[in-house]
Amino acid sequence: METCHNCGLPEDCISTTGRKVVLHFRPQPGEKFKRERRQSTWCHSDECAIQALAVAQYGAASHKWPLTLAEFRSTDPLAANEKRPSRYSLEYKQGKMLRAGKAKIRLDHQIPASQMIDSIGQKQQ
Ligand SMILES: [Zn+2]
After folding, report:
1. Which residues surround ligand 1, an ion (CB under 5 A)?
2. What is the pLDDT of residue 93?
3. What is the pLDDT of residue 40?
4. Consecutive 10-residue runs of the chain (125 residues): their mean pLDDT?
5. Which residues have CB under 8 Å from 51's CB, separation 6+?
6. Residues 6 or more apart whose Cβ sits within 8 Å of residue 25
7. Which of 12, 85, 101, 118 has the fewest beta carbons under 10 Å from its own?
């Protein structure tokens, strides 16, 4: 189970799938021994993801940021962070829904090919 990178909320506590983000940590001035690094992480909401992205980019001391959180949010950082959204996020959502019991695979309303051919044949008679 994952917990939100920003606020620590466990994955189980929310009804949505949350959001995967890739944080790009940049060393702040004075942090000589830190290197740039990327970390893939999970946040429980878009707002937490935006905050986590901002902290990674500008450091934990928000009063030193070159822009406000509102300004950062308005740059749509989540859209820029979106990578390989299609396949991974769909699988993630489906897996989460199945685990939560919200979705069941229903095969019973799929008509077998043989029955379809039968019904076509009956109409023609
Ligand atoms: Zn959160």
Report:
1. 4, 6-7, 9, 44, 48
2. 64
3. 93
4. 94 90 82 80 95 92 93 92 58 65 54 60 55
5. 6, 69
6. 34, 36, 37, 38, 39, 56, 57
7. 101
**Residue 107 parent element (H or E):** none
Residue 21 Cα to ligand 1 middle (Å): 12
**DSSP tally for the chain: helices H, then strands E:** 5, 2
Tokens 């090919």 — which residue?
A: 113
CA of 4 to the centre of ligand 1 (A): 5
Nearest to 96 by CA among 33, 13, 6: 13
Q: What pLDDT score does 27 carry?
A: 75
Please give the C-alpha separations between residue 10 and each of 31, 59, 96, in angstroms, as whole numbers.
31, 24, 13
- Rounded Cα distance between 46 and 83, Å, is 15
| Tokens 């685990």 found at | 99
